[in-house]
């Protein structure tokens, strides 16, 4: 059985533990807080309830061991996941303690949302085994994880990390450049900043902004991202045509955020190229078909749930009848 | 039978026509382009295929009439939807032609994504019947629509517009302040700008950014918005505690977009208040339960679809078994 050491509990660490356990890994859990097992059990209960709803075939659950020390937890572990508070001096100190006891070929991953791997590695004697594996809440359900190695992490280690994360049902996205807050949180931050302006200026309420997402572009982004959505919207004229039309809008006073990248030819071409590669030969009609099938599936699913969103969609169904 | 006049076809106007028709309205359609009916029929075919999958009970489809002139289309219509190109002089000219023939108590709505209603109303003899009703693509499936009246539009007209939009299965969000690009597109624009930087700087590809959405925060935002997600993440300590922790991050160099609203006490309190109202007494545990149920429902639904996302999730299911 492969073994994961979870260092630092809370919502994130506990959900990492749950994900590893439900995918058959042995888990050794350490958190110095006296009630850390309460949070762990609460999260684990949720994971045990929901994960089998998504995945029909799960292996037998792994064994969980609560450990008194970091050394006990990490000795012999294949994967060490650090999820301590977001303060660099804490993380560096915990990572040093981890590396004092873990195997040299173990992968030591940090859940940090903000720090770059080279910051975490500073002062380490084995920086090459430390990387960022930043997940998204709820970690036991959402597949995404940002993997960020620095230049000193060997490619073999990165590939091994990707394979192990895939083994527990995750979708690793490996970023080839270090940047504070990685990628996902930067996008969230941009939305957050604009949303703060809109609320401050009295243009919209929190509920209106949330509704715009849950009944609008959130449904788009749950099954097509930003670029594939725009690609589809651009129609047969293509992504380049779409981008060239879009370009001038960046000069308009739409957001309060004004330091803007030039959408010059080089950037347009890069996006077109990446978008082409991403489409892998699928036509706009095929992309539309995927989009519609996905949206229908999600809307039907939401309707069947006894939730606010489901109740609303049910009401829509009734009022349309 | 209520009647809608659709002025301007294309993807948006054609999808408006489809939504009205499938919800039992009579539709009169006008677009001067010679092949506008080709686009219309293509979109209508999609709507006829997908909308009944979501809504079990639909009324008999309404009658569609292609009209040679704006006057023919709008005479006697209850609702006029203008979806012409995004140029103010075109829209003002078309709106004048619409108002020359439509009833004084018809609602004249514009699909504009950028212009404010007072801009559209400028020079009109009956500005009080013009408002913005900005939908999101695909209009026949996504329920959201931003309704933006200006100060001269009577409250009764706004309420009638909301009722009619609800009648065709939409979720109207009425904005009480005019602002260029309304709300949703400003949020999209903020993400878009940051995404452009990330691509320009070589940090991520279009596919990686899309994957972060489709396997990560897009799934969150499809069933909880920005604020309810953060409210849930904040846990029992509450939204205020969460915001106070979040505040300092706005000073960090996370985005390239630097003109930032101060997250001062007044703004914190406003958000807390709106978020409390939105939660309507539901505890964080209840919000978590809704979130998990929704995510499970969507993930299950996506797995069953023969799409890239579905295939990936199926693979996950298999590899976990």
Provide a compact summary of the structure.
Two copies of one chain form a homodimer. By secondary structure, chain A is α/β, with parallel strands linked by helices.
CATH class of the largest domain in chain A: Alpha Beta
Mean pLDDT of chain A, to the nearest integer, reads: 82
Say what the CATH topology of the largest domain in chain A is: Rossmann fold
Which sequence of SSEs, written as H and E, runs from N to C of chain A?
EHEHEHEHEHEEHEHHHHHHH
Report, as a whole number of angstroms, the end-to-end distance of chain A: 54 Å
SS summary, helix count of chain A: 13
Oligomer kind? homodimer
Tell how many strands the DSSP assignment of chain A holds: 8
Question: How many domain modules of chain A?
Answer: 2
Explain what you see.
The structure is a homodimer. By secondary structure, the first copy, chain A, is α/β, with parallel strands linked by helices. Chain A contains 13 helices and eight strands. Chain A has two domains: about 5-175, NAD(P)-binding Rossmann-like Domain (Rossmann fold); about 185-320, no CATH class. Chain A has helices at about 10-20, 35-55, 70-75, 90-100, 115-120, 155-165, 185-200, 205-220, 225-235, 240-245, 265-280, 285-305, 310-320, and strands at about 5, 25-30, 65, 80, 105-110, 130-135, 145-150, 170-175. Chain A has an eight-stranded mixed sheet, with helices on both faces. In chain A, helix 4 (about 90-100) links the parallel strand 4 and strand 5. In chain A, helix 1 crosses helix 2 (about 35-55) and helix 10 (about 240-245) packs antiparallel against helix 11. The longest helix of chain A is centred in the last third of the chain and has 21 residues, at about 285-305. Residues about 305-320 of chain A have low confidence and may be disordered. Chains A and B meet through helix 2, helix 7, helix 8, helix 9 and helix 11 of A and helix 2, helix 7, helix 8, helix 9 and helix 11 of B.
């Amino acid at each position: 059985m492969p073994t994961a050491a979870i260092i630092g509990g809370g919502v994130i660490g506990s959900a990492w533990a749950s994900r590893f356990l439900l995918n058959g890994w042995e888990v050794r859990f350490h958190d110095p807080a006296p009630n850390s097992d309460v949070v762990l059990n609460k999260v684990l209960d949720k994971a045990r309830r929901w994960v089998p709803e998504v995945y029909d075939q799960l292996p037998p659950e792994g064994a969980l061991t609560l450990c008194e020390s970091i050394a006990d937890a990490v000795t012999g572990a294949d994967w060490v996941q650090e999820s301590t508070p977001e303060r660099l001096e804490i993380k560096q100190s915990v990572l040093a303690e981890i590396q004092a006891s873990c195997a040299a070929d173990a992968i030591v991953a940090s859940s940090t949302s903000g720090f770059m791997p080279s910051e975490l590695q500073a002062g380490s004697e084995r920086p090459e085994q430390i990387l960022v594996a930043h997940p998204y809440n709820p970690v036991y359900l959402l597949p995404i994880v940002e993997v960020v190695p620095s230049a000193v992490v060997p490619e073999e280690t990165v590939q091994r990390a990707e394979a192990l994360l895939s083994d527990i049902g995750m979708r690793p996205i490996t970023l080839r450049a270090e940047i504070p807050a990685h990628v996902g949180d930067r996008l969230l931050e941009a939305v957050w900043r604009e949303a703060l302006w809109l609320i401050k200026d009295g243009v919209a309420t929190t509920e209106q902004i949330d509704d715009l997402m849950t009944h609008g572009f959130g449904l788009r982004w749950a099954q097509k991202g930003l670029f594939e959505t725009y690609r589809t919207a651009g129609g047969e004229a293509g992504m380049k045509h779409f981008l060239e039309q879009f370009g001038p809008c960046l000069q308009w006073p739409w957001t309060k955020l004004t330091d803007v990248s030039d959408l010059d030819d080089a950037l347009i071409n890069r996006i077109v190229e990446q978008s082409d590669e991403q489409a892998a030969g699928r036509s706009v009609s095929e992309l539309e078909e995927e989009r519609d099938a996905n949206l229908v599936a999600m809307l039907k699913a939401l309707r069947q749930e006894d939730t606010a969103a489901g109740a609303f969609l049910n009401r829509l169904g009734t009022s349309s009848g």
